[in-house]
Amino acid sequence: MIKKTYNVVTFGCQMNERDSETIAGMLENMGYTYCPEFKEADVCVLNTCSVRENADKRFFGVLGQLKNPHEQNPGRITCVCGCMMQQQVHIDTLKAKYPWVDLVFGTHNLHEFPKLFANVAEQHEKIIDIWKDGTALAEDLPAKREYPFKAYVSIMQGCNNFCTYCIVPYTRGRERSRAPEKVLEEVKCLAAAGTKEIMLLGQNVNSYAGISDGSEGSPFYGKTGFAQLLKEIDKVEGIERIRFMTSHPKDLSDELIECFDSCSHLCRQIHLPVQAGSDRVLKRMNRHYDSAHYLQLIEKLRKACPDIAISTDIIVGFPGETEDDFMSTIELVSKVGYDSAFTFIYSVRHGTPAEKYEDQIPEEIKHDRFNRLLDVIHSIQEEKAKLYQDAVMPVLVEGVSKTNGSMLTGRTESNKVVDLPGDKTLIGQIVPVKITKAQTFSLYGEVYKGETNG
Ligand code: SAH
Ligand code: SF4
Ligand code: F3S
After folding, report:
1. Which ligand is in closest contact with the Cα of 56?
2. Are 62 and 73 in contact (CB under 8 A)?
3. Is 396 helix (H, G, I), strand (E, B) or coil?
4. Of ligand 1's atoms, which has the minimum distance to the CA of residue 275?
5. Which residues sit with their C-beta closer than 6 Å to ligand 2?
6. How far apart are the first and last CA of the chain?
7. Which of 100, 269, 282, 426 could form a disulfide with 397 if both were Cys (CB 3.0 to 4.6 A apart)?
8. What is d(CA 442, CA 435) in angstroms, rounded to the nearest whole number?
9. Confidence (pLDDT) at 248
10. Burial class (CB in 10 A: 0-12, 13-18, 19+), 311
11. 14 CA to middle of ligand 2, Å?
C-alpha cells in the first residue's frame, strides 16, 4: 500500500516552527510520510502567523494555490491552524471564500489535532474548533525535529505584555510556563540523542515562572525563574550551545545578565528587541522602559560579556511617530551598534489599542524612514563584519549551503551564517573555522587546522 503523504507550511516565528514540528510528529504517528512539495501532499497543514499584514496576505496566497490540487484530488485534506485562526474575521473569510479547507483549529488546541484530524479523515466532516483561552500546557507530544543536532525547546506560551501594536497576546493567550523538570528532561533527552545546540523559546522568556512538579531528585523547588532554569540546563552534558528567544528589556534581570559570564554553554549572543528609541513612542507602545534603561542594560551585558553579539527588533512609523522620534531611534541604533536588527514597518492589527490611535503615519513617510534606518544599520554591520576577517571561531555545521550547493553552511556562536568548503561528514559538528572573507551580509571561511583554543 502506498503511504499517504503530508506537508506543513509554516509562517511566522520560532514558536510556530516548533508547533509545526509537533504537527509533523503527530502526522507521522498517524502513518503519514513527509512530501517536500505542499501542493502534492495528501494532507497539507498551514500554520499561520498574524503579526503583520504581510503574513496574513502570504497565507491567503499559499491557500489560494491549493484550490487546483483540491479540485484534482478531492480526497486530499487541507488544515489551517495558528495565530490567524484565533481571530474570527479570518475564520469568516475562510468559510466564505475557501471551501477547500477541511479542518481549522487554533493555538490553544494543537494537542487535539490527531483527534480532530481523525474525524475529518474518517467521517469526511468539516471541522472548525477554536478555543478562546489556553489551558495547562500539554506535555509529551510527539515532534519531528528538523535537525538532529540543534533543537527548539519551548519553555512557555503566551504573553501578558500587551504592547499596543501587537496581536500576539490575543492569539497566544496569557503566559503559561512549563514545569522546570519537564524542560530539563526534554533537554536531557535531546542531549542523549546527540543534540548539541538548543534554543529555549517563549514570547518573553525573562518572565518564565515554572512551578516545580516536585518530582524526586529535582533540583527545583517551588517557583523557578529563567536564570535558575538556565543554570541547570547549562549543566546538561552534551549540550554545547544554549540560546534563548525572546527577551523583553523590562524583565532582563541582573541574575540573567550574570549568566553570560557564569554559564559556560550560553552563547555570547542576545536578541533584545528595543522597538523604538523615543521615550514618548516607547510609552505609547506600552513597553515599560525608556531608552536610558535600555542603554544601561546594554552596558551591563557588555560588562558581563565584552564580545556579546546583540540583535534587536525595531518598528518604524508607529502612530504619532514624529521626525524627532524617528531620529531618536537612529541615535539609539548608532549608540548600541547592533550586530543585526530586524526592522519592520508598523502594520495596523485589528483589535489592538494602536489601531485606534490617531495620526497614523502615511505610507511614503514610513517607507522613507524604513530605508533611512536600514542605511544606518547596514553601515554599522559593514564595520562589524570587518572584525570577523581572519578570526578563528567555532562553527556548528548545519548542512549544505542554500546559495551554493558545493559549499557547507554553519553558524558562529554569535549566530552569523558562515559558508565553507568541506565534506558532508562535518554536518552536525562544531569545528574551528577561519574566516577568509567577511562581507556585510555573508561570511566565508575554511576549517582551521592550526592550534586553537576555541
Ligand atoms: N515577543 C517578542 C516579539 C514577537 S513579534 C518580543 O516582544 O520581543 C516580533 C516582532 O514583530 C516584534 O518585536 C515587533 O518588532 C514586530 N511587530 C509586532 N507587531 C507589529 C506590528 N503591528 N507592526 C510591525 N511590526 C510588529
Ligand atoms: Fe507582542 Fe509585546 Fe508580547 Fe512581544 S512582548 S509578543 S511585542 S505584546
Ligand atoms: Fe506570528 Fe503568532 Fe509568532 S502572530 S510571530 S506566529 S506568535
Report:
1. 3
2. no
3. strand
4. 15
5. 159, 161-163, 166, 168-169, 203-204, 248
6. 52
7. 426
8. 11
9. 97
10. middle
11. 14
Please tell me the distance between residue 166's alpha carbon and the centre of ligand 2 in angstroms.
Answer: 6
Residue 454 has pLDDT above 50, yes or no: no
| Residue 450: predicted pLDDT | 79
Pocket of ligand 3 (CB under 6 A): 12-13, 15-16, 49-51, 83, 167-168, 171-172
Domains and CATH numbers, the chain: 5-129 (3.40.50.12160), 150-386 (3.80.30.20), 392-447 (2.40.50.140)
Which residue CA neighbors atom 1 of ligand 3 most closely? Answer: 49
The residue whose CA is least distant from atom 1 of ligand 1 is 203
Which of 238, 206, 200 is closest to 225 using CA atoms? 206
Q: What is the pLDDT of residues 308-319, one digit of tens each?
A: 999 999 999 999
Indicate the average pLDDT of the chain: 95
For residue 57, which of 98, 97, 7, 11 has the smallest C-alpha distance? 11
Q: What percent of the chain has pLDDT over 70?
A: 99
Specify the pTM: 0.96
Q: 161 with 124: CB under 8 angstroms?
A: no
- Where is average pLDDT lowest: 70-74, 116-120, 293-297, 437-441? 70-74
